[in-house]
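Appendix B. Extra example for self-study. Work through it before the problem class; the solution is given directly after the inputs so you can check yourself.
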Amino acid sequence: MERLSAPRFKRLLLTGAAGNLGRVLRPRMKHYCDVLRLSDLAPMDPAGEGEEVVQAPLEDLAAMQSLLKDVDAVLHFGGVSIEKPFDVVLPANIVGAYNVYEAARQRGVKRIVFASSNHVIGFYSQGETITPQALPRPDSYYGLSKAFGENLAQFYFDRYGLETVSLRIGSCWPEPTDRRMLASWLSYDDLERLLVAALSAPVVGHSVIYGVSDNRSTWWDNSAARHIGYRPQDSSEPWRAQVEAAHPYVDPSRPEVRCQGGGFVVLGPFEKDPAP
Amino acid sequence: MERLSAPRFKRLLLTGAAGNLGRVLRPRMKHYCDVLRLSDLAPMDPAGEGEEVVQAPLEDLAAMQSLLKDVDAVLHFGGVSIEKPFDVVLPANIVGAYNVYEAARQRGVKRIVFASSNHVIGFYSQGETITPQALPRPDSYYGLSKAFGENLAQFYFDRYGLETVSLRIGSCWPEPTDRRMLASWLSYDDLERLLVAALSAPVVGHSVIYGVSDNRSTWWDNSAARHIGYRPQDSSEPWRAQVEAAHPYVDPSRPEVRCQGGGFVVLGPFEKDPAP
Amino acid sequence: MERLSAPRFKRLLLTGAAGNLGRVLRPRMKHYCDVLRLSDLAPMDPAGEGEEVVQAPLEDLAAMQSLLKDVDAVLHFGGVSIEKPFDVVLPANIVGAYNVYEAARQRGVKRIVFASSNHVIGFYSQGETITPQALPRPDSYYGLSKAFGENLAQFYFDRYGLETVSLRIGSCWPEPTDRRMLASWLSYDDLERLLVAALSAPVVGHSVIYGVSDNRSTWWDNSAARHIGYRPQDSSEPWRAQVEAAHPYVDPSRPEVRCQGGGFVVLGPFEKDPAP
Amino acid sequence: MERLSAPRFKRLLLTGAAGNLGRVLRPRMKHYCDVLRLSDLAPMDPAGEGEEVVQAPLEDLAAMQSLLKDVDAVLHFGGVSIEKPFDVVLPANIVGAYNVYEAARQRGVKRIVFASSNHVIGFYSQGETITPQALPRPDSYYGLSKAFGENLAQFYFDRYGLETVSLRIGSCWPEPTDRRMLASWLSYDDLERLLVAALSAPVVGHSVIYGVSDNRSTWWDNSAARHIGYRPQDSSEPWRAQVEAAHPYVDPSRPEVRCQGGGFVVLGPFEKDPAP
Amino acid sequence: MERLSAPRFKRLLLTGAAGNLGRVLRPRMKHYCDVLRLSDLAPMDPAGEGEEVVQAPLEDLAAMQSLLKDVDAVLHFGGVSIEKPFDVVLPANIVGAYNVYEAARQRGVKRIVFASSNHVIGFYSQGETITPQALPRPDSYYGLSKAFGENLAQFYFDRYGLETVSLRIGSCWPEPTDRRMLASWLSYDDLERLLVAALSAPVVGHSVIYGVSDNRSTWWDNSAARHIGYRPQDSSEPWRAQVEAAHPYVDPSRPEVRCQGGGFVVLGPFEKDPAP
Amino acid sequence: MERLSAPRFKRLLLTGAAGNLGRVLRPRMKHYCDVLRLSDLAPMDPAGEGEEVVQAPLEDLAAMQSLLKDVDAVLHFGGVSIEKPFDVVLPANIVGAYNVYEAARQRGVKRIVFASSNHVIGFYSQGETITPQALPRPDSYYGLSKAFGENLAQFYFDRYGLETVSLRIGSCWPEPTDRRMLASWLSYDDLERLLVAALSAPVVGHSVIYGVSDNRSTWWDNSAARHIGYRPQDSSEPWRAQVEAAHPYVDPSRPEVRCQGGGFVVLGPFEKDPAP
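Solution. Structure tokens for the complete assembly:
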């Protein structure tokens, strides 16, 4: 892909650098900064030139205070990225988000790009198109934690002026592999475009935008987020024939087919029922 | 045109197959199914390979019950397609629509693509842009019958889960021939794209979308129907010069110029006045 | 009740005068006109002073043309008022409404008050509050026919300037008798107030308003119809204790409990299934 | 006050029974149930007739599983009710809310009335009126935790059908004591009316409503929550003269005056800044 | 009437004190301040106790700079209050409004209550209900000048923090005298209530509210302006019978009947046509 | 650029022909008419073939009456185009706009394209996307005068049927030169496309549209103005790198950075403060 022109940052922080998207973003985001600081709970490849690698758990505030030092902007992709029991989601995604924001405030960071998720609005129907102003309908503990993160971002902007773009990321994979992803797919190149736009828009306050490619069909209308300057260039269409061949029929009366959140809407419950 | 990728249907039913659009669609829709069943009140060309031809009036419920047997999905283009006295519109478009939906329910059909019309909203001004959520302002008995059909579709979805995409078709002709059609024109290729999208979107509930090409100017904003996946490829623009040359001036104070429904808004009344 | 002040009409027409509400309205509406013309398909009590009684089927256009002669305004309460098979609803409520409007146009009638119904929007949840601008979600053939009537009224206003107030009447009975009616009840006195307001508002175009008393809970917000000047004075509250005692528990997962249309949403289907 | 008629519950659970509002509600809610179960982290007065008293921390899931047993409906007033550092708010209000909902799901509880707060939307201006559909703008960690609770309620309804009314309570004190409370005050009697309405409305899904009396001025328009059936009877007006005398001037350029959340919007930060 | 409790002002300025409403307000507003400064272009009664009388044209900036000195808040009722040729409206209402705002800014005045008018939105139909957010549709040069004043108020708030409540006053007369005024009437007592509310609401930014009594029918829904705390106590209803008797029929097809602005919508043009 | 097809006008009037945009438009608009009449207060180049040059002040009504004679449509670009003291803006932009509209009405002109400005809505944040229905938030006397012009246009359409397209022009310069203009830039070619669309749309009533190119980021969503048929072809993107290099950091807490109006929002005040 042709890289977007963008202002160069001195130091960007990418959390969740050992995760699926973190590994995709590591080489890409290096193009936009002098130093790319990388963090994760899990081990990462050693630091290359212009990289800093810091292994640290999000739920450790002191670690986050160190991590956020001398950082211009944060790409917060850390935490649990799939549905898990609440006591797993809580420290990573709720406490972790708090720690990142609080440390960012203390360190004077100006902007965070927050990897939110379509699972914040997963209970809307695939038979409707929604905007970034749609009220949350989370479909999972994971979705709840991302809704918490969006509210946290709103609070830190209203209270302290720390700006955030919350990306409600669809399905970010190498290619779309089922019928839902024909609508929800976000290519890696478009993810990069979206991050660059979110980092370089001069003013964002707290803005919400769906992270989705220019798919022929989608459930998300980003018209109200044009100020961010994201223009997707990819589409799921080239994969349509093979996906539709592999999944010839879906039954819209089943919640996991009908809802935008797909399979997440039927996961759980995780807790064992108590004795009667 | 390059055909859209789409799941293949076993049997599609096209009503109104002898009509203007029916004749256009007959060869086109054959590409998307094993068997294309064709019906009309009027005689049709004999069945070709993979075709079934059934002459039947929409107002005959028993005939519709037979017609809908073993059908996967319906393209309901049958009925009166221009303004007529109410007693002509009634059996074809109101009773007929009821019969098609009721028979479809009985036969377990999963989806109907309903040829609704811009005349459902014909009394809006050409000086405004409306969305699929615009409240009906029908401009004729014909428009009233199509508004009835849309409500019927909503009822059969809410009550029985039978899904519909209602297409508020603009002006579907070989080419645009007057200034109104520069905005309302739908090319035959785009009509096909729209039908394929409406048939193959995994979940539609009851969705409404305007059937219009990608004309430079239009009165219809389909942003709220992006989930259907319709992306028009054609435009009225190549015909603009000749159309504007042929119709140099239109007077916006005349209802038929001002309203989106065009000439329909001044047709009628049809009934003779009673003795005083 | 204290009668509302209102301009006196020379001749009002009340259709459906032999029906439940027609019989309630007959003595009441006499106060607002010199002559009250009463019509129904069924026999009615003989005409009293200042009354005219005309037995006539709504589906007979010629009869309607006679009936509408020399009438200032119409209270159209005629037709089927409960759910029935489509072929019963059709002539009475769809053809009948057309005949009344067309005859009214021919006879120069200025305004119609149309007894529409909450069943036009019966599939909305009782867990939400809707406005007169809510898109139709009819719950029955009856509801479909009333939605048709509302669209017809919009057409006759846009096309011919004939004004209508469409009343989406809730549950108009002597008293509320189940938990749904605690929200949907319309007292007879409030019905009268509503009719007088709808008749005497100087300008209404085509306006829609919910016909409901000032119940403590309701699903309908008439703020957008304040121009009509309806102010209910009654409430279902005095009946609450006895109703709740008689119906201690309702299960909100059942459609007939959850939906605003109540039991109507599960009536039908009426047609026998065809041979397989 | 005259008690509202309401269906009688077998067993209601009131969490936070030792708190300010809990103590107010304890004698009041007894009128609506056979058994009132009371819980809090802190000690409570011993159980009276028809009462059960259970001291238990919200952050203990097993304790909640016991507590929710054989309960018809829950009034969830437990947790921290003022602004505190995040690590204090987290266990009580976020983990606690999760535990209550999860235990309620396991125990088959049908409805929860959730004591949310105006601090969910505290950063809106006092110079505007908002509806229950306003997007969250929390003003504090406390407000964030209540926004989390509302999203949790939405999730448990969408996923499991457990119904909630979220009450965005204003200022619930014996009387209004500053100029902000002239708008935000909720009397104890109106709180009781609100709870009874929220418990007895037949269908609520997840509904949000502002908890505020019928004050002359307010920032909250509950029109969209009429289905709940809350009609406040009290007003801050009788206290206006003394409040305005005591607080003659407020400077609208200061955030704590300008914002609906009042003083909460300037509390914090609580964390000590890290070493530079 | 019982006076509203309100904070006492040291000095209020009432412009237009010699006008119809100015004379009504002079004795009333004295109750809320130590000193009531009165100004007009025309002569006024001599100053009574606690009054200051200043004859000054609004179009004289220097005079306004003197007039606004030591003023807490302004009731700006000055200027032309009926339709006039543009060159009459311009100096009094456009230049005059600018002078008042600019002088108020220079003198540190905190709040202005601006007598705007329903003629800002006079071209809306009487058959609809609008909110304070309705886009302007002025019906006259007078209405245009009031729309200018509202925009000016918005500018002075956004730019300088000077707060305004813009009152879109309906028909403020001793009693309603025609059918339009049954909807648009504002009693003098309600005007006083509205002014006191607008002066004493702690935070208003720039808020717009319709100045209308609690008439049975109206075209204006003030729900979105509840933060101002205006609760009308009067109604046009007691005059209805005599008004309707005097004006038995109005033809809704005539613009002056159909439009909210009434007769204003057909005044003019005033300019003589130029030589052809 | 390839010229748009458009109906040919007999005589177009371009006011402000000596201004920045006027000089750009003079050779371009000549393509769409037989005669291009040019006017300005300042001297202009002598008339070429098919041109008429008239030096005349907008504030002279008689001059405008002569100027508007035999004109089909007006491109009203005259007046002050930057922020100036109110007494400079007033005659040129407020009186001048009135004179142009009044003379146009007298002369039977059918349509005006009004050069409004983004400064009508300059106080909205760059962190949000607004539509043509956004309520005015003018950022300057200049912006106020343009808001007046838009209201004037609405009045002349509602009252006299004279149609207008109001163009809220962004930053129309040869190229974007700062970060704000990356979002607000309108190329000269796109300006021409916009004018041709506004002149040739058959029906516009009074429509508002943002004048902006197809920039990657923008604050303006023209979806609701699709009926005008404007499709921008240019973008600020090619200039991004050099602009961002020249302006590496902007502080979003400063009003002139945060607000859509840019530097205009901090201009002024112009009046000297009066003696204390």
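Self-check: The radius of gyration of chain A is 18 Å. If your reasoning did not lead you there, revisit section 3.
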